[in-house]
Amino acid sequence: MGGTVRAVCLSEKTGTRKEPCAEGVLREDYGLEKDAHAAQGIARQVSLLAESSIDKMRARGLELGPGDFAENLTIEGMELFTLPVGTKLRVGKEIILEISQIGKSCHGGCEIFQAVGTCIMPKEGIFARVVRGGKVRAGDPVEVIA
Question: Which CATH code, of 2.40.33.20, 3.40.50.300, 1.10.287.600, 1.10.1040.10, is assigned to 2-144?
Fold first, then answer.
């Protein structure tokens, strides 16, 4: 089972939507460089969201793009939330991510929840720690390796 990185997104402040960028650097046991959520030794170093999950919210009439759910990596072609904690993903040729959490509590101030009364992150957003880092860019393949 595999997919493709649709977008790499980051933000300098927490609590904001992330902006797509041309490429990023995922650092081992840290996360995406220059992103406000990156930190050494935590389980939620990188956030990922499937394009199909975003499509569910678009079907409710919202105009949404990569980073609008504060995800670092938007992935096409995979239902990420169906993968169990502990699954390892290869991104590109060198990056290895290990899924550490599925879903998260949606804070009350979430713009999307305020607009439509629901959000996909509590059930479909996933988080990973960076086992092996490297450069990541849109178009990179993503595959389950363990």
Answer: 2.40.33.20
